[in-house]
Amino acid sequence: MPLEEYLHAVVPSEMPSSFSPEALKTQAVCARSYAYMQLMRADLAAYGAHINDSTSYQVYNKVEKTKESVAAVDATCGQVLTWNGKVVEAYYFSTSMGYTDTAEIWNVDDPSSYGYLKKACLNQADADIDLSDETAFSKYIKSSADGYDSDIRYYRWFATADLSDKTETVNEILMARHSISPKNVLYYESDGTTEMDVAAAGKKMGAITGMSVEARSSSGSILTLDLTYECGIVKIKTEYNIRKILGCMVKKIVYADATESENITMLPSAFSTVEKQEDGTYLLSGGGYGHGLGMSQNGANGMAKAGMGYQDILNYFYQDITVETIGEMEGKETL
To answer: Which residues form the Sporulation stage II protein D amidase enhancer LytB N-terminal domain (predicted)?
Structure first.
């Protein structure tokens, strides 16, 4: 299948065709850049494929192509994002909480290789606030803001996390995540510095007794979440792991428009407070939906409505990037 034809169905599956034409063009360029990277990487070559059709790569054909998606793809034919002369993985997500973040939230080995991902402020006031401090973050996330995607229900939300009877569930998630990436789930004795034998941790540590934020990024995302046990501490890193753990403790989440979701499996984002209440539960006041890296899709639509062109929007979200046309990609690469 030609790449451009593939994108005709990816764009409406990832972004509503009702969005502004300039926003759809940003999605087309990001989706093409991401797909091109997968073509070059060939992770699924053993299966005779370059990508699959799930959110692990990009959603394909969940929504059939539309005239709007075709127009956006055709108008940007062959265009990709490059940084330092190389095509980048143009990460994107649903909705910001007023800021985007850097690859720091993924605890990557080489942050410099993700230098195109920057902290971007989507608030109309364009105030760059350091939200790494707990007090500053709590004040910000509990206040309203006039931003490019502040009209979206995910912009602000709150939930209550209850540790009661969650130890077994949490431990299962932690062990699964540790097996995938040990550096992002760290087990310690109660002193917080002496490493614990992971194999013995489940029986030795006992029940979870509390949790707290150890570190945040300057955009406010939790970098390290500490879980305190009767006999030990687990330090959890990366936004995905943190969202999984906090999500399993929540029964209901309430969004800015007063709508609710129950039985969630992940917190909408890692931009959240973790504040202990008198009854032993924890207040999670948060915002945004998704990992928070790269382009906010709803933010891009807000910018397009405000009159920004797609290249200006892309430069707003990604640092020192160039929109280039890869000649050999123009309908010739196949998936």
So the answer is: 1-83
